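Input set for joint prediction.
Command: fold jointly, output tokens.
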Amino acid sequence: MSESTQLLVAPHEPTIVITRAFHAPRQRVFAAWTQPEHVTRWWGPQDFSMLICEIDLRPGGRWRYVLRAPDGHEFAFSGVYREIVPPERLIYTDGYEGLPGHEAIVTLVFDERDGTTTIVSTSRYQSIEDRDAHIASGMQQGMTETLDRLARHLADA
Amino acid sequence: MARLPTTSDVFNAVAEPQRRDILDLLARGERSVNQIAEALHARQPQVSKHLGVLKQVGLVSVRSVGQQRLYRLNSAGLKPIHDWVKPYEQLWNERLDRLDDYLEQLQREDQQP
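tokens >
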């Protein structure tokens, strides 16, 4: 059974808060988020391939994900772990390498109750403008996917 | 990127905190300028000015009842903001759906003898 994702964009603060529940123990959800053999199975969009998934899970350690889009474009995301409290909490920086200097700080909390793990991810940007630009880039990607689907549909027709 | 003037851009119109308070209040029902000013402990001319902006971007509409002018929320006017955040929300929803499927798959593998 699938739960829905809640997304909150605060008007006064440069944050995006994402909440989602999973029917799994938090140990497992935490592992799925922090071990490359798991991350490569779900993180990238459907048609993207994950070329690189490096995770150095210790304070000061780096993570780096490189995705390749169906059109061949590559997107690299990376950051540094600041705090790691398995399986409860993660704090790390998160940036798109195509836009350096605009990293967000992500605080991810894993809360387990009766076998259900709720994650709350709070991304804090350097400004509301940065946050809004990040959301707009999501729109761009969404648009790209939509256009790709349209292109496939037209090719099939 | 150049911003559009407040009076034609719904994003700018809701960027002002007191205007958002007015929208929150109107979400609960129609109000006159005086009722809004009283509820928000604001000055009436200030509230009138905000309502003017909200009206121009289509977030509120107004009707006359006797001597009174009653303002109400036109929530369809918020659609551009909804449209803006929706693809991003969808991106994350799809990603977390995949995680959900993957966790279920791990669970099933556990249960196999």
